[in-house]
Amino acid sequence: MDIINLIKQQTPEERQALFNEFIKLLNQKREYIDIPERIVCSACQVFVDERDGTSENGDYIIHEVYGLRHYDPFMRKQIAELEKNYKYPLLDFEQGFLTNKGRFVGREDAMKIAQEQGQIIRLSGSPNADILFSEDLY
User: Which residues, at least 6 apart from 95, have a Cβ–Cβ distance to it below 8 Å?
Assistant: First the structure.
């Protein structure tokens, strides 16, 4: 009898216990497939106007927002929600991208990653071919 049929014969509690043991084994042996870093979506870092405050060490307070395109309606909605917490509008700090590793990268690093992973479907026509635009990806 194959493993799937054996699992199907177990109670939900037994299946959950088996799953938990399997996860523990994976964590113990670190047998994960290391996937390469890829570009996932557009991202912007926006900062809080100094008149609304700074971090404890005096640096700007920076938020990240995400969307299909830079400053698309989805991204603008996130900014509008964040701005409810401040007196002054948020300011553009840096445009970049989010990777599948949860890392914000600037346009130049994003272009390198996207090229290495074969994600470029066309070049958007920017005079600077070293920076990535979401239009280059999709």
Answer: 42, 43, 44, 45, 70, 106, 107
Which of 28-37, 38-47, 82-91, 123-132 shows the lowest mean pLDDT across its residues? 28-37
**b/e map 98-137, b = 16+ CB within 10 Å:** bbeeeebbebebbbebbeeeebeeeeeeeeeeebbbbebb
Q: Which run of H or E residues covers position 8?
A: helix 3-8
Q: What angle do CA 67, 70, 73 make, to 5 degrees?
A: 60
3-state secondary structure of 132: coil
pTM of whole model > 0.70?
yes
End-to-end CA distance of the chain: 46
Coil, helix or strand at residue 77: helix
Q: pLDDT tens-digit profile of 8-67? A: 888 878 877 777 777 777 666 555 567 899 999 999 999 999 999 998 899 999 999 999
Residue 52 tokens read as 């609304």
**Amino acid (1-letter code) at residue 41:** C
